[in-house]
C-alpha cells in the first residue's frame, strides 16, 4: 500500500488530466472542476485504507464523471442539459478509453493552461484559476501563493470559473497573447513546489516538476521568446539546488550552508546556456534577470566566492522593472552583502508597511544577527517562526533563535 504522501503526489499529478478529460467530454468547466475536486477528496479518503486501484486515472475519471452528471441533472434546466449530455456522451462514457484513444497528457494540461489564461479574465483571476485547475493547489494554497486572504481567493476562483463557462476546450488560435499570465502562473506554481507555503515538507517536487515540464513545452513552442527562455533557465538553476536544501530529517538548509557537491551540475549547465543565449538577444526582462542572479549563485564555487556586487547590479535593474516588495526585500540582502548589514536593515525597514509575513522578519533576523544584535535577532526569528505555516521553515527559524541564547 502506498503512503499518504505518495497518494497525494499521485492525485495532484492526475488532477489536470482528469479535468481535461471531463471538460473535453462534457464542457461545463466550472462544474467539471468541482466534480474533479470531489473525486480527489474521495480518493484521498479511500485509497490510504483500501489501496490505490490498478488504474488510478481511470478511477478518478469515472468518479468525477458520475459526480458531474449528477450535478448537471440537479440543475433547473435539467432536461436541456441531459439531452446535450446524452448527445455528447457515448454509451461507454464511464469506461476508461484505451491508451491509444486518450489525448496526450501534455495536450490536455496545456489546453487547460491556455483556457485559464484567456483574455476575458483579469491577470489575478487567470493565475488563481490556473493554480487551481492545472497546478492542483487548494484555494488556501493559492491564496498564500498570491498573498491574499483565503476568502478573497475563493471569490476570485468562483468568478473566474463562471467566466470560462462555455468556452471551447482546446488551444486558442492567438495564444501568444496569453503568455505574460502563463509565465507568471508557471512561476507561482514552481515557487509553491520549490518552497511549500504550508505543511510538514519543505518541497513539493510534483508541483516544481510540473512547472518545469510545462515551461519546457511552452519553450519548445516559442523558442524565440526570451522571457520563456529566462523562466525555464530560472527554474532549472533554482531546482538544481533541490537535493542540498534539506537535511536527512527534512530540515531546511540555507543557501550559504549547502553542500554544493549535491547541486545538479547538468541542470546548472543547461540553465546557464539558456540564459546566456537569451541575454544576448537584447534588453532583458524580469525572468531573465532572475535567472541571471540564480546563475551567479550557482556558478560560485563557495559562498565566499559569490559575486554579490554583480548580484546587486542585477537586482537594481530588476527592481527598476518590477518594483515590488518581494524584489526589494531580496535586493536588501544583496545590499547587506555589499555594503554591510546596517545598510541592508535600512532597506528592510522601508518595506515594513508593504510586506507582511514571516519573510520580512526572517531577513531582518538574519541581518540583525550579522550586525551583532543577538537579542533583537532572536526576537525577529521568533516572530517569523510564529507567522509561517511551513513546519520546516518554522523549525529552522526557531533553531536560529535558540542558537543565539537568552
List the helices and strands and how they pair.
Layout: H1 4-26, H2 29-50, H3 56-73, H4 78-88, H5 105-116, H6 123-133, H7 139-146, H8 150-163, H9 179-194, E1 198-199, H10 205-221, H11 226-239, H12 265-279, H13 286-299, H14 308-321, H15 325-339, H16 341-349, H17 358-370, H18 374-387, E2 389-390, H19 391-403
Parallel strand pairs: 1-2
Helix pairs in contact: 1-2, 1-3, 1-5, 2-3, 6-7, 6-8, 6-9, 7-8, 9-10, 9-11, 10-11, 11-12, 11-13, 12-13, 13-14, 14-15, 15-16, 16-17, 17-18, 18-19
Provide a descriptive summary of the structure in words.
The protein is mainly α. The chain is 67% helix and 1% strand. The chain has 19 helices and 2 strands. Strands 1-2 form a two-stranded parallel ribbon. About 4% of the residues have low confidence.
Outline of this structure?
This protein has 19 helices and two strands.
Mean pLDDT: 86
Helix count from the secondary structure assignment = 19
Q: Name the helix and strand elements from N-terminus to C-terminus, one letter apiece.
A: HHHHHHHHHEHHHHHHHHHEH
Query: Can you summarize the main beta sheet?
Result: 2 strands, parallel
Structural class: mainly alpha
Cα separation of the termini: 47 Å
Outline the low-pLDDT stretches: 90-105
Helix content: 55-70%
Defining traits:
406 residues, mainly alpha, two-stranded parallel sheet, 2 strands, 67% helix, globular
